Amino acid sequence: MNATRNLTRRAMALVVVALLASLTLLTACGQASSASVPPPEPPAGEHQLTAEDVNAWLDGKIPDALKNGDIPGAVVAVVKDGQVVTTRGYGWADTGASGGDPVAVDPQRSLFRVASISKIPTSIAAMQLVEQGKLDLDADISAYLDFEIERRFDEPLTLRHLLTHSAGFEERWKVAPMTDLEASVKSDPPVQVFAPGTTPGYSNYGMALTGYIVQRVSGQPFETYVREHVLEPAGMTTSTYEQPLPEGLAGSLGPGYTSTGEKIPFELMGDFPAGALTVSAPDFAAFMNAQLSRSPKLLREETWEQMWSPGLGEERLGNRAKAGEMGLGYFELSRHGRRIVEHSGDIHGWHSKFELYPEEKTGIFISYNGDGNEASSSLREDLAQGFADRYFPADAVKASGSKDSAERARQVAGSYVVSRGFWATFLTAWVPALGSTTIEHAGDGKLIFNGDLVPNKSPYVEVEPWVWRQVDGAGAIAAQVKDGHVISLSPGSAYTLLPTTPVQQALAPVFGVCLVLLLVVTVAWPVGALRRHRALKRGQEVGAPLPWLTRVARGGGALALAAQLTWIGLLLVIRANPTNFTDGSFTWLIPVARCAQVLQALGVVAVIPAAADLVIAVRRRAGWRRVTMSALLLAALVALAWWAWAGNALVPGLGL
């Protein structure tokens, strides 16, 4: 028993190491800053939001952050009261590492890809049509579409749900390049796994669908409509959703860079309303001012406020709304008690963020062109929090002091999966590995959030029952409790954390145990044949060869093992390439996944001969070795069949 347990632990350790190995970050090349003189010292004392103070602060902070994070270059823009305080460029737009001369970031001309920040102009475009009476926020979107979306729930699916990321769609990967918006939204749409309006789960597909609705209702191609009605009126004259970039702009866009300093080709997106916008720092400064001034060229003042206000409310989200929730396209959060609306964006090689202070008419934007190393993951959050600490300081968050805080914190502590995940594809089996997070009780009612959603790891303190706020940051957690049990958490805005179920917790261990058992049986088969062959050569007496039924059963076990190894390989590729694979170089994943499904199905079928073989072996008293191997094989195949069923390994929709 102990030997088997040790084998299982070793095999599981190997599996975990293999799954995580692809995430190892290597040192990136590329110079972080072209400055050859030490940065100036920021002025001491109270800080006024002036060009002199902001420039000194940025120059003392950004070059070191880029160097420590192995990031080639960045731009930053700050605005206040309708004026551009500063636009600063740092480092390299092109490092020259792949040949050619390096090109420094030009804060006036260099273009950056802002990924999911693209959702903001898309949301504004949709709300323009709402203002015109051509769209209704709360009408079922089937009225605006020319195709059917599979529904799993009777509730209407509305534009409000799309803009608040609460339509209930699961996550999907795309492996083929596709720049046609209509083809993209109609091609293998994701499954609706949550009832609309109940479980926010960030969805690129939902925003792409919004863009398609804009295209259909306006009668113009999406990129044309948004250019004429959003970008140009906002003063964004060098910004575009076009793919590839127009000839006049292409020369101003350098490459993005991997964590190892390699150039990344221009990524084509089928869901481009959700992520294809390319901007310059002056353009984005103008866009921030247009939003902060509630520009009537874009929307009415009351519509701006509607977009910045909670889109669902406590009547739909319950206590979870107290952590902050989505507006219509915008994230909402608070720093030092000041309201902020914001959005971030990430694609391979490009990372961006902006935050607006509507009451203070102030905004800050940063974008950089490299994945960087582990130290780079908190760069945007550190900059945003540092900006708030410097120019809008306030007293630290204080705990509520309730004597029951510790007990509530203990109830919240545990393992969770993120709603933005894979729920109806073969990746379901790997949801905990791909998107799990943990919350720890740190004592005295404090919580520690461990997960990618919160790069700042400072503790959370309870500010009211079932609501925690970050001591040094903008994070918040609110729990939804039913019958004394935590049924979900909100980390703010467009995500929901769901307690990891016993089935989800069992999937990986069962897979690992089956891997070990099938390896033992598969290896024992040829080893036994070799021993029998040697015994025959020595003239020793040996038993009869394995019956054909036993061989069929063990052959099925070998096919199931091949399926397992194929699944592991697919997961390693996906983990090592955290993008939508839209450059077309990963289309081979589809036939490989289908091959794994065929092998897995044959392994399920092999349960029948394996069961028959075990019965016959026991009845004929075939010897302990053969009975043991037959029992192990049957146990592994039955357990793996359960894993395939519970993990959706055999569902037709791959989600690729």
Provide a concise account of the structure shown.
The protein is α+β, with helices and mostly antiparallel strands and 656 residues long.
Largest sheet features: 7 strands, antiparallel
Q: Report the oligomer.
A: single chain
Strand order of the largest sheet: 3-2-1-11-10-9-8
* Average residue-wise pLDDT: 87
C-alpha Rg (nearest Å): 28 Å
Strand content: 15-25%
Judged by helices, strands and strand pairing, the structural class is: alpha+beta
- Give the overall silhouette: elongated
**Can you count the helices?**
19
List segments where confidence is low: pLDDT < 50 over at least 5 consecutive residues: 1-40
Number of strands: 19
Ends: how far apart?
Answer: 41 Å
The helical percent reads: 25-40%
Q: What can you tell me about this protein's structure?
A:
It is elongated, with a radius of gyration of 28 Å. Helix 1 crosses helix 15 (502-537) and helix 17 crosses helix 19 (624-646). The relative contact order is 0.11. The protein has 656 residues and is of the alpha+beta class. The protein has helices at residues 2-21, 51-69, 119-131, 159-163, 181-186, 204-218, 222-231, 247-250, 281-292, 301-308, 314-317, 379-391, 405-412, 431-435, 502-537, 548-576, 589-605, 607-619, 624-646; strands at 73-80, 83-94, 103-104, 111-113, 256-257, 263-264, 278-280, 331-335, 338-347, 350-357, 362-368, 414-418, 436-443, 446-450, 460-464, 467-470, 476-482, 485-490, 497-499. Residues 1-40 have low confidence and may be disordered.
